[in-house]
């Protein structure tokens, strides 16, 4: 059955050296694997260092894919310095572990990291909290199986596992088995066995040298060859070998699986997988987006003035008299559009009187001499005479005067009248509301002696009806004027007649135009902003904004404010604007003088 | 004895040799990798590379000045082509990060810059789309510039799809008075990682 031992002298010495070499290599491999596993796992147990398997290559050449980095806890962030290798949870990779080197420690306490093989630092700074630890010890290669598993490279893992199982199995085979196999192998050789893929392969022991091939060779033919074993001389040994290999695989020696399981557990079960990622970045930098600014105007200068309104002035007057059903008054010479005309129509007796077009009745007295006062503002194109028509024949005395610089909107500030009998004709006092009115007093009397107007007034006309008959059948009108500074009570204006008769005194206060008065003028240097639309000029009084003017265009450099009151001090604020944008403000104070 | 002791001795020797080798190896590599004096900047290796480029020729996409509150509300656009030129096949997206540096200025400013007033639309072009003939394949980001946040995923390059156009549109809905004089400097960074 078994091979004769006669060949032992030759087979003992010759294959032993090669088998010893192969056995040593297998032992070295298994031992190295074990030691690496112990080196990787030992500090994890004894020093609490955490093993991390590196799964990619950006820390090459110092740290390769498959290396295990043992990281130590960091007491304080001050312990971390540039050039330290740290393992951190990368915020830009959903917390994936990354092992890179600190390039700079930033002012905010974060770290900028970079893989040694990367041309660019990592984009996202690493906070202290994200640092898992600092690299303390590097165990090369031992994590390769874990990375194969992690990356799904199952073929590589299976090859490694097969090689390792075979190596462990063989190394753990007892020396007696080796000796027995040696004998068997010798018999195979002598019998010229051709069952294997290499017919002259001397020793299955070479599985240590070519483990993968041997393992495949050993594993496959088990079922096929076993029944044939009895037919051939060498098959017993072959079967032994095959059975031995099958035993190794099928776990009759579970220690072998325990061995590889231990290796895997030591390196894989306790280690985290960390990337050492290759990174490249390309940037588009220096994009500038800016909002312009409206530049303010400069050199704001404020000035204030107060000029009195132009005084009301008497221009000219015309008169007419007669006994008729009408009286016609000519337009005074020099009357221009906008002038104010006052007509005083006096009749001996009360009568219904119709005024010409454009005239309005101011007031009239039907007690004593009939005295009606009419007003008209001269139009641009105007007739040259005006006719009043009476309902019946009457004795007229009439005068018409023209004044300029009277307000067209409100020509009469106040008016009044009273009738009496005696030598004194009293025009009653008025109360004016504005300064610089012009008082015009009208005195009428049933007499033709001629009245004397009061001192201070200037007589504008005096005319009698001048008809035949007794003096008291006559009638007379006299008008006098006097500027009144006001505002306030004017006092009466009394004319004196040589004869005591029925009389009427009337007076109006003409209001001046509103021109002139106080104003503030602002001047400045235009804004240099070409897109500006113009300026906003605000007037403030006592911390309260009163007005805001908009001045356009951008090239404007002046504005005036005529709604100020003399005697007050205002603050003006000037800014340039461009749609809703406003420049910074210039401001200044100005006091408006009294007029 | 002889036949028993030789393999045992060989195993013993091999195990000791393995221990010695592993010890030396781990200590040496550890020293190389972790000593503080280590500096390996600029190393390159033949194991493959990751390289990403763009065609901006170093020029910024935007240099815009808004002259008033309603200037250019319809937007400014910029476009460039990003190309992955590495030999390593990427399995994850190229990311696009945006960084803004705000500068406040002008009258009555609220102490911030312009990025909170600007709306940004970032679009990625379809495969093969150019800047001249841009067709969008999706929106990477739309919103206020200052709210961009973390880097956004764009696309995973492949051998048949190495380059994409990226179009940026910056608009605003009227710049308030206190935005006068404000500005922002923007940087866009594409990162490819294994």
Greatest interface by residues involved: A-B, 80 and 92 residues
Q: Going across the major beta sheet of chain B, what is the strand order?
A: 1-3-8-5-6
In angstroms, what is the radius of gyration of chain A?
A: 64 Å
Kindly state the percentage of residues in helix of chain B: 10-25%
Radius of gyration from the alpha-carbon trace of chain B, in angstroms: 28 Å
Biggest sheet overview of chain B: 5 strands, antiparallel
Which range best describes the helical content of chain A: under 10%, 10-25%, 25-40%, 40-55%, 55-70% or over 70%? 10-25%
β-strand amount of chain A: 35-45%
Q: Please give the number of β-strands of chain B.
A: 9
The major beta sheet of chain A can be summarized as: 7 strands, mixed
| Total beta strand runs of chain A | 29
Descriptive overview:
The complex is a heterodimer of chains A (595) and B (194). Chain A has helices at 8-46, 144-151, 154-171, 175-191, 211-219, 222-225, 235-250, 254-269, and strands at 50-54, 68-72, 85-90, 96-105, 111-114, 131-139, 272-274, 279-291, 298-307, 313-330, 340-347, 353-354, 360-365, 370-377, 385-404, 412-427, 431-432, 437-445, 458-464, 476-484, 488-489, 493-510, 517-525, 534-541, 544-551, 558-561, 569-578, 581-582, 586-591. Chain A is an alpha+beta fold. In chain A, helix 1 (8-46) packs across helix 3. The radius of gyration of chain A is 64 Å and the shape is rod-shaped. Chain B has one helix at 2-34; strands at residues 52-54, 63-66, 76-84, 95-103, 119-125, 136-144, 152-153, 163-171, 183-193. Chain B is an alpha+beta fold and 194 residues long. Chain B is elongated. In chain B, the strands form two sheets. A five-stranded antiparallel β-sheet of chain B has the order 1-3-8-5-6, with no helix packed on it. A three-stranded antiparallel β-sheet of chain B has the order 7-4-9, with no helix packed on it. Chain B starts with a helix and ends with a strand. Chains A and B meet through helix 1, strand 6, helix 4, strand 8 and strand 28 of A and helix 1, strand 1, strand 2, strand 3 and strand 9 of B. Strand 8 (279-291) of chain A pairs antiparallel with strand 9 (183-193) of chain B, so a sheet runs across the interface.
